[in-house]
Design a protein that fits this description.
The structure is a single chain. The protein is mainly alpha-helical and 130 residues long. It has two domains: 62 residues, Winged helix-like DNA-binding domain superfamily/Winged helix DNA-binding domain (Arc Repressor Mutant, subunit A, Orthogonal Bundle), CATH 1.10.10.10; 58 residues, no CATH class. Helix content is 60%, strand content 9%. Strand 1 and strand 2 form a beta hairpin. InterPro entries: BlaI_family (IPR005650), WH-like_DNA-bd_sf (IPR036388), WH_DNA-bd_sf (IPR036390).
Length: 130
């Protein structure tokens, strides 16, 4: 699965923290800081829906969107990509680096650590033939 781009990540972070929202509510919350017009917000959300990253539910004639991607798994994938592909870091990645993030609870930090470093364990197993 591909990783969310910065626009998609902004929408996901908003939906993770706020829950189900209409495109207008998403736009009102993050559109100005992203420099988006309402049509841009709707386009980003529609593409995310096509990718299966958000779900749409019609409530009283209004489309409401919910993040379908798991927050911890998504953030773990982004951290792993940054560390391995961008920074060329080998070895365990301490999830404690993200302890100050308002987006993660202590339990989610533990889960993030497992996600980041479990992928490394699997890669080591495959390389070693185990």
């Amino acid at each position: 699965m591909s990783q969310p781009n910065p626009s998609e990540l902004a929408v996901l972070k908003h939906l993770w923290s706020s829950g189900a929202q209409s495109a207008r509510e998403v736009h009102d919350a993050i559109g100005a800081q992203q420099g988006w017009k309402p049509s841009t917000t709707r386009t980003v959300i529609a593409r995310m829906e096509d990718k299966g990253w958000v779900t749409r539910q019609d409530i009283h004639g209004m489309a409401v969107f919910t993040a379908k991607l798991d927050r911890t798994a998504t953030l773990g994938g982004l951290v792993r990509h940054l560390a391995r592909q961008v920074l060329d870091i080998d070895g365990p990645i301490p999830a404690a680096l993200f302890a100050e993030s308002p987006h993660l609870s202590d339990a989610e930090l533990d889960e993030l650590d497992a996600i980041i470093n479990a992928a490394e364990d699997e890669a080591s197993d495959k390389k070693g033939g185990v």
